[in-house]
Structure prediction request, 445 residues.
Amino acid sequence: MQTMWRPICHRSGERRQQRNRGVPLTELDHPQIAAIAERWGTPFYLFHPGRFRKNIRDFSAAMRRHYEPFILGYSYKTNYLPAATLAVKQEGGYAEVVSRLEYELALRLGYSPERIIFNGPLKRRADLEMALDGGAIVNLDSMTEIEFLCDWLLRHPEARPAVGLRININLTGADGSSRIQDGLKTGRFGFAGENLERAIDTLSSHGVEVVSLHGHSSSSDRSVENFRTICGTLCAVRERYSLNRLRYLNVGGGFFGRVPRELIGRDVPTFDEYAAAIAELLLADGWVAANRPFLVAEPGVSVVADSMSFYTAIHSRKNVAGTRNFVTVDGSVFNVKPTMHRYNMLFRHIAARPPGGSGIVCDVVGSTCMEKDIILQDVVLPDPQPGDYIEIKGAGAYTIVMTPPFINLAPAIVGPDGNGGFRLLRAPQSVDHLLEGYNLEASPT
Ligand SMILES: Cc1ncc(COP(=O)(O)O)c(C=O)c1O
Prediction:
């Protein structure tokens, strides 16, 4: 059972302080929320730009303390709010994209193609050609993409393209169990074994240099050990195939950010701990130590999760069959954890007036018609009433990018205006947005 979250007290030692040192987050009071709600409705997201920028800086500084040169490629898919992606650009970061949509988004936001890292399992022929023409850093994922590249070379015989390869990482722990997301035995991304050999042979016979090895692996535990495995594998591939023109060793994303202990019941590695382990592995390799290719990391959740809060209004409260209390809010689980993980996120209850009754144990449930739309489970709220609000903290990763207009429209995103007020960063979706693109003239057949 979880009661209302309070800010963390920084008294339990230096290490704990280091883990949680961030920019204090704005916590809206009831009149502030009501004022925003009047203009743009509820629910809404609140972006914390100071926290986001600090995360980007802290992550980069930790890596650079242990290894240089370093490139941060921000994972667009995690949250492509322009206010965030533009901040990354200002901080000197690159855009890490995995689709044509994200590639074009990065271009529209002013990234030059050389500062775009193009990953992902589905680069269509035209997508790949656009990236090659522009000079982006492309990490190829399949033989199909290599065939597209070879076809492109026939039309550009003078070109000397340089590409990367995604390497399939065997993330098996010491106990023999898989660390890949959901315990899957084999990850589906990248090249390994014979396929890798064939890929490298084909590229080399076409005069294509491999300048990047990419080892992102979505793990279940985000452990430091995984990054040791990734670095070890990338170094072994470089050595085995004498890839001596390598410019980028890319470990991908999959780091923990500042996750308070009360959220998952344990401490998680700090940015510095990840960086130290990665650098130790890389610098133990004589070629890497002598040639110093760029270390690239692609953080997503670790830098953006705690940069957004979600505010939702309580609509009703009921007790069912004398056994269970439900508090229904106007947001849904899709707004805060579309992956429906089992953790209760950190939250605050903002009452319209001092709570009169006693606290109740309840589930905070969302606005859709799904039983599974449970935002918080078994939490204690002091006398929740319609008109109160709930803030869900840490709602910045894989939320706005994964919210379909399912039953309700996508909500507004607001941020500070620099004068103590708030401004719109994304308008709430309307029925007009929803119907855009549909042919309303077509008669049913
Ligand atoms: C290629 C690649 N890079 C980076 C990331 C970001 O991962 P995370 O949000 O776990 O840091 C992902 C996420 O799946 C990814 O597929």
Remarks:
- The domain at 49-304 is CATH 3.20.20.10 (TIM Barrel).
- The CA atoms of residues 314 and 386 lie 5 Å apart.
